[in-house]
Amino acid sequence: MSDISRQPSLFYHLGVRESFDMANNVILYHDTDADTALSLKASSGNYYFIPYIVTPCADYFCCESDAQRRASEYMQPNWDTLLGPLAYYKETLLNDIRRAREKYQGDELAKELARIKLRMDNTEVLTSDIVINLLLSYRDIQDYDAMVKLVETLEMLPTCDLADQHNIKFHYAFALN
Fold first, then answer.
1. Is residue 132 pLDDT above 80, yes or no?
2. Following CA atoms 126, 132, 133, 139 in sequence, which dihedral angle do they give, to the nearest 10 degrees?
3. Are residues 90 and 62 in the same domain?
4. What are the distances in angstroms from CA 32 to CA 1, 68, 122?
5. Does the keyword ATP-binding apply (predicted)?
6. pTM above 0.70, yes or no
């Protein structure tokens, strides 16, 4: 999954496996960027997600992104105080989307997602994991127009480059199809 050029194909194959009820899927990711790893982990659904790192001695270690994040926060504690409320808000949105997907279906899910989207008034809370979860939720209720509108709205935002990410492009192309 680390090779960005192969991600669309891999997501396609994961979707095919999912359609055949093949639930035991493992995603390996060379964790060089914590944000990308979190995005891929969020978009990987119920798959086993295994990030790994390579040491300068060419040793491979399986690692948890949370542990890396905690280590980087230890190195720069001021960022946590500055970005803490924003990170909390992002986590709350993400949890609300996940809860809505578990609790609602069909039109009820569409209404709940509309309420959640109204709370996203700041582009700083738009992260790839939130967008992917919204796209997956819209896909589940087959609201392809909402998927297209979400990605096209992201494309229009001048300070947002989320629409350029391969996993978001994949879902956008799926919705257009």
1. yes
2. 130
3. no
4. 12, 11, 27
5. yes
6. no
